[in-house]
Amino acid sequence: MIHIGPGGGGYASRMDMTPQRWENTCAYLQEVFGHQDADLADLRNRAIARGLPDIAISPDVGRLLMILTALAGRDGRGATLALELGTLAGYSAIWIARGLAPDGRLVTVEIDGHHADAAQSEFQRADVADRIEIVRSAALDALPVLAERFGPESFDLVFLDAVKAEYPAYLEAARPLLRPGGILLADNALGSSEWWIDDEVGVDPEADRSRVAMDRFNRELASDAGFEAVCVPIRQGLTIGRKKLLS
């Protein structure tokens, strides 16, 4: 069991965040809030065995996605239509699907066919395949097609977890898709395994593009008069924006 007890010294020393304290904090959050069933717990191992990258949100973030999806509907029954950009092996999509309204559905966009096949298998295993549609496309190509198909203000929730350098473009395309009161979520708001938001520019050009784009995304959403937004420092950061209701 992870125990985070009172630190020594004064108030400032207890509030200082060190690498070890951050690691302990993340472990505590996963221990307390990261409960998951056996299928979800082993999904990552099955994905790795299929040759997929060892990447997924943590179970505590997954539970947060499920709760926010359940809160995103118009009538308190959960979202009726949700969108995810970046499916990978389907771990986050399953959490989202579990928060949908009884008649709700999730559209998830994945460019890699092998990843999409793996996710479809996991959706069937988790008994949510009838609630999830996989669109096999690049996110920026799929967004205008989905806008034409569903129309403006049609989605209760949008979750961004695809190409980080494209997040500002995702925001521009997703903004009109969200209904007033809808929720926009963005993973990796503070970093990834390759970069962190306070890194200096110039060390790794690819990481720089992702970090700069994420910083731009966060600032644009935070200053958007049509949204209320906040970033939750859980795992690698989750930005949460709620589109304001019409006055």
The CATH topology turns out to be Rossmann fold
Structural class: alpha/beta
- How many angstroms does the end-to-end distance come to? 49 Å
Total number of β-strand segments? 7
pLDDT averaged over residues: 88
Beta-strand proportion: 15-25%
Instruction: Give the overall shape, derived from the CA principal axes.
Output: globular
Domain count, please report it. Answer: 1
Order of SSEs, N→C? HHHHEHEHEHEHEHEE
Task: Indicate the radius of gyration in whole angstroms.
Answer: 18 Å
> What is the subunit arrangement here?
single chain
Name of the CATH first level: Alpha Beta
pLDDT < 50 runs, ≥5 residues:
1-12
Lay out the secondary structure:
Layout: H1 11-15, H2 19-33, H3 38-49, H4 59-71, E1 81-85, H5 91-99, E2 105-110, H6 113-125, E3 132-136, H7 139-150, E4 155-160, H8 167-174, E5 178-187, H9 205-223, E6 227-232, E7 238-243
Parallel strand pairs: 1-2, 1-4, 2-3, 4-5
Antiparallel strand pairs: 5-7, 6-7
Summary tags:
single chain; disordered N terminus; Rossmann fold; 7-stranded mixed beta sheet; 247 residues; 9 helices; alpha/beta
Summarize the model shown.
This protein is of the alpha/beta class.
Written account of the structure:
This protein has 247 residues and is of the alpha/beta class. The protein has one domain (56-243): Rossmann fold. The chain has helices at 11-15, 19-33, 38-49, 59-71, 91-99, 113-125, 139-150, 167-174, 205-223, and strands at 81-85, 105-110, 132-136, 155-160, 178-187, 227-232, 238-243. It has a seven-stranded mixed sheet, with helices on both faces. α8 links the parallel β4 (155-160) and β5. α7 packs parallel to α8 (167-174). The chain starts with 10 loop residues before the first helix and ends with a strand. Mean pLDDT is 88; it is low at 1-12.
